[in-house]
Amino acid sequence: MSVYKNKIKDKGPAVDAFGGDMIILFGDNAPDTLKDYCYTIDVLPTNETITEGMSINFDDQDYIIKTVGNLAERNLVNLGHLTVNFTGDPAQCLPGAIVVEQKQAPKLDIGTIIEIINE
Question: Are 68 and 46 a contacting pair, CB within 8 Å?
Fold first, then answer.
């Protein structure tokens, strides 16, 4: 079941600044100090609570969610803000982030579909 679905509509010039370890999603109101590092998405609700074990998909690339920060879903729903950490290390989970299994980060671009799925 789809818990959340969105599409990248813009990207800042420095989205690759974090290498393959992290991506930042943000709605249209990203702070100026962060905007260059963000992929822009619409602010949309979730259909249920995001939890460990769900997967986040970027087009056809799937990543199992290992850890969910205590502010991650609230920030996503209210601001369109979510940091996705690809290290697989739960100790690196910030409050507004999720940590997914350690795999190569996806190549994202305008039009990339982001979906969180509870299977």
Answer: no
Q: Report the first-to-last Cα separation within the chain, whole angstroms.
A: 6
> Nearest Cα to 1, choosing from 66, 67, 61, 47?
47
What are the backbone dihedrals phi and psi of residue 82, each rounded to the nearest 5 degrees, phi first? -150, 130
Tell me which residue of 96, 89, 91 sits closest to 74, measured CA to CA: 96
Which range marks the domain in which residue 74 is found? 2-117
Q: What is the model's pTM?
A: 0.95
The domain total for the chain is 1
Which CATH number do you get for residue 44?
2.40.33.40
Q: Is 8 helix (H, G, I), strand (E, B) or coil?
A: coil
- What would the two tokens of residue 46 be? 């979730």
Q: pLDDT tens, 39-51?
A: 999 999 999 999 9
**For the segment 15-29, what is each residue's pLDDT rounded down to a tens digit?**
999 888 999 999 999
Helix (H, G, I), strand (E, B) or coil at 10: strand
Rounded to whole angstroms, what are the CA distances from 55 to 61, 67, 116? 10, 11, 6
